From TrEMBL:
Protein name: Periplasmic beta-glucosidase
PROSITE patterns registered for this protein in UniProt: GLYCOSYL_HYDROL_F3, PROKAR_LIPOPROTEIN
GO cellular component: periplasmic space
InterPro entries documented for this protein: Cellulose_Degrad_GH3, Fn3-like, GH, Glyco_hydro_3_AS, Glyco_hydro_3_C, Glyco_hydro_3_C_sf, Glyco_hydro_3_N, Glyco_hydro_3_N_sf
Protein's UniProt keywords contain Metal-binding: no
Pfam families recorded: Fn3-like, Glyco_hydro_3, Glyco_hydro_3_C
GO BP terms: glucan catabolic process
Annotated Fibronectin type III-like domain residues: 670-739
Enzyme Commission number, as recorded: 3.2.1.21
MF (Gene Ontology): beta-glucosidase activity
Lineage of producing organism: Bacteria, Pseudomonadati, Bacteroidota, Cytophagia, Cytophagales
Catalytic activity: Hydrolysis of terminal, non-reducing beta-D-glucosyl residues with release of beta-D-glucose
Family, per entry: Belongs to the glycosyl hydrolase 3 family.
């Protein structure tokens, strides 16, 4: 019998080789469309050889494990791979280790179909960049595309084919820890950032040796979980879904994203993983998405506790029929699909379509031509954490920093200051610097704030250090030493914030205050009377009202990655003039949440002199810091807005201009923002909507005329009948350096 199998294997191998050979021969000089049809031909040639069990195996994704030396594979998974019951592995990385796993699939399975290797390369792979929320505050699309590009360079050099990024979830509730992973609260900005990140990951295209498949997640509207509690219910009108939450996912797909990941949440009563409206009607029929859809971690199994499926078989059937191609870690496709097909309860054609989508990506990646092409130890050694990547990480980190306050020009500090005290639980917190979802990033290589400051100052400067307290407990025993240290210094840099894993997945908070006793530490240090600069390391907006009222200088640094300490020091000592702007609103109180700039006006807009208007008894409606806000070491002024016409038809575009001047003493970058307000519509419209921005550099005294073009698409929305388009009427148009202090113009759309 063994001889029979060996002979059959050789025949199958020959058939595969022929299929591959004929495909790549024709592939070499064909146009994209015929290249696609060539790939389809090769896919079908493999599909025709597959048993039902082998087909279902391609729809199964299992995790690798870890031990102290790095990723490991469970023995039973090796058996599953050999049995052709696994098509992809995630959390496995490293040229050598992925090669070993690939050899099992290619040499020990009947059809030698290569594995796909995926991983959460969210903000860097080995060289870690700022957390995505932090990086979004750079408003620099080139920076964000480059960091994704470098992540793909490193990941693909370590055997990875696929990253589970970009996360495109609009988030307006800072209680939700996963706000840290996205691009903030705004639909327009989130869409542009999603595009940039997909282009970075996929580079010159799938199949390029330094590119990886992007994965648009978490589809859809996961950022709208009720009460900011992770995995909670989301529920909204189709209008809000399409106007606020869907555009960034669509932008990512329009940018060519190869895959999509379903979200954990339900939407309108149906969990995304079983939601045909999302996965087929919108994603495939409206958006023409042709890649494959993978679930989030065990989310097919979670259809049971959601209460939408009563057993494995019904959950698997619901997901597959909704349009989900690959089952991450639940094993429900493996367990149930074969029987469902054999009982005639599921069409094998559905499985074939899912297998095609997955095999197509494996062909496009070149894995059938050379399954080991990404698992090259020499390339890995020469690629990972090279100096140019570290330099890019430092540059991107500096640009992500937001200067929130700088009274009496406390900043920038002098490098030759006599004594500087660096105090606080985030001052020398190496692990925290690379934030959550830091993939294979080696935190031991991260530069702390203390190290960054020591490296920046002159040899004559004495740098003092005190921890002061822990991040999140009530220990105050270190206070006295911190106070003594502060008293010895000429200036205090006070590093407070959150632990890295207080944000990210399963990290919701009901309070937005500094954790533990950090606020008490700040107050004690402030009592010393020394000039204090607060440096924040956090993954969400914090209600730092007291600090804002009592501390002269505040720098928001998020979690800046491998080069954090150097980047913060570059800003503190003025080697880089901070240019970041907030992409999420900072509330004054968690009681204001959700709070975001593009709110509706309501029928009773706030009037301080009228009790019966929309406001609180115990808090202002205003945020602590608004969307788009950030200071510089220089100042900028905005001239009046000029319009190409006071009115336009529905065929016209409108030019909107404003002169921006650097009125300070040093060069600086400004993010010039353009907003509109459609005053009257068949449905109510937000009081402001970001429609464009430009990040510009101005020398001291220099002015630039900044011009934007408003298109009909910019003025369009989902009207009362849910058609997308414009309506005639009066518009306000705004230009400024944040969403609050703006110059206004008015025009009529006829
Ligand atoms: C997690 C996350 C998702 C991640 C996946 C694989 O639960 O929700 O963002 O990509 O599992 O790690």
């Amino acid at each position: 019998m063994k001889k029979y199998h060996a002979a059959m294997n050789r025949i199958y191998l020959l058939v595969i080789v022929v299929a591959i050979f004929t495909g790549c021969q024709k592939n070499s000089n064909t146009s994209p469309s015929s290249a696609n049809s060539q790939v389809d031909g090769r896919v079908d040639s493999v599909l025709a050889l597959m048993t039902l069990e082998e087909k279902i195996g391609q729809l199964t994704l299992f995790t690798s494990d870890y031990d102290v030396t790095g990723p490991t594979i469970r023995e039973n998974y090796k058996d599953d791979i050999k049995a052709g019951k696994v098509g992809a592995i995630f959390n496995a990385f490293g040229a050598d280790y992925t090669r070993k796993l690939q050899e099992i699939a290619v040499k020990e399975t009947r059809l030698h179909i290569p594995l796909l290797f995926g991983y959460d390369v969210i903000h860097g792979h080995r060289t870690i960049f700022p957390i995505p929320l932090g990086e979004s505050c750079s408003w620099d699309l080139n920076v964000m595309q480059q960091s994704a590009r470098i992540a793909a360079e490193e990941a693909s050099a370590e055997g990875l084919h696929w990253t589970f990024a970009p996360m495109c979830d609009i988030a307006r509730d800072p209680r939700w820890g996963r706000m840290a992973e996205g691009a903030g609260e705004d639909t327009y900005l989130g869409s542009r950032i999603a595009e940039a990140r997909v282009k970075g990951f996929q580079g010159e295209g799938i199949g390029a040796l330094n590119s990886v498949l992007a994965c648009v997640k978490h589809f859809a509207a996961y950022g709208a979980v009720q009460a900011g509690r992770d995995y909670h219910t989301t529920d909204m009108s189709d209008r809000v879904l399409r106007e606020v939450y869907l555009p960034p996912y669509k932008a990512a797909i329009d940018a060519g994203a190869a895959t999509v990941m379903t979200s954990f949440n339900e939407l309108d009563g149906i969990p995304a993983t079983g939601n045909k409206y999302l996965m087929t009607d919108i994603l495939r029929k409206e958006w023409n998405f042709t890649g494959f859809v993978v679930t989030d971690y065990t989310s097919i199994m979670e259809l049971l506790p959601h209460g939408i499926a009563e057993d494995t078989a019904s959950a698997a059937a619901l997901a597959l029929e909704a349009g989900v191609d690959m089952d991450m870690q639940a094993g429900f496709y493996n367990d149930a699909l074969e029987k469902l097909v054999k009982e005639g309860k599921l069409k094998e054609g559905l499985i074939d379509e899912a297998v095609r989508r997955i095999l197509r990506k494996k062909f496009e990646l070149g894995l059938f031509d050379d399954p080991y092409r990404y698992s090259n130890v020499e390339r890995e050694k020469s690629t990972v954490m090279k100096k140019e990547f570290l330099d890019a990480a430092r540059d991107g980190a500096r640009k992500s920093i937001v200067l929130l306050k700088n009274e009496k020009q406390v900043l920038p500090l002098s490098k030759s200051i006599k004594r500087i005290a660096v105090i606080g639980p985030l001052a020398d917190a190496r692990r925290e610097m690379i934030g959550s979802w830091s993939a294979a990033g080696d935190w031991t290589k991260a530069v702390t704030l203390l190290e960054g400051i020591k490296a920046a100052v002159t040899p004559s400067t004495q740098v003092l250090y005190a921890r002061g307290c822990n991040i999140n407990d009530d220990t105050t025993t270190y206070f006295s030493q911190a106070i003594q240290t502060a008293k010895q210094a000429d200036v205090v840099v006070l590093a407070v914030g959150e632990a890295a894993l207080m944000t990210g997945e399963a990290a919701s908070r009901t309070a937005l205050d500094l954790p533990g006793v950090q606020q008490k530490l700040v107050e004690e240090i402030q009592k010393t009377g020394k000039p204090v600069v607060v440096v924040l390391s956090n993954g969400r907006p914090l209600t730092i009202n007291w600090i804002n009222d009592n501390i002269p200088a505040i720098v928001e640094t998020w979690f800046l990655g491998t080069q954090a300490g150097h980047a913060i020091a570059d800003v503190l000592f003025g080697d880089y003039n901070p240019s970041g702007k907030l992409t999420v609103t900072f509330p004054r109180s968690v009681g204001q949440v959700p709070i975001y700039y593009s709110m509706k006006n309501t029928g009773r807009p706030m009037d301080a002199n009228n009790k019966y208007t929309s406001k609180y008894l115990d808090e202002s409606n205003e945020p602590l810091y608004p969307f788009g806000y950030g200071l510089s070491y220089t100042t900028f002024t905005y001239g009046d807005i000029s319009l190409s016409s006071p009115q336009i038809t529905q065929q016209d575009e409108l030019k909107v201009s404003c002169k921006v001047t650097n009125t300070g003493k040093r060069a600086g970058e400004e993010v010039v923002q353009l907003y509109i307000h459609d005053l009257v519509g068949s449905v109510t419209r937000p009081v402001k909507e970001l429609k464009n921005f430009q990040k510009i550099m101005l020398q001291p005294g220099e002015s630039k005329e900044i011009t934007f073009t408003l298109t009909q698409h910019d003025l369009s929305f989902y009207r009362k009948d849910m058609s997308f388009g414009v309506e005639p009427g009066k518009f306000e148009v705004y230009i400024g350096g944040d969403s609050r202090d703006l110059k206004k113009g008015i025009f009529i759309l006829q």
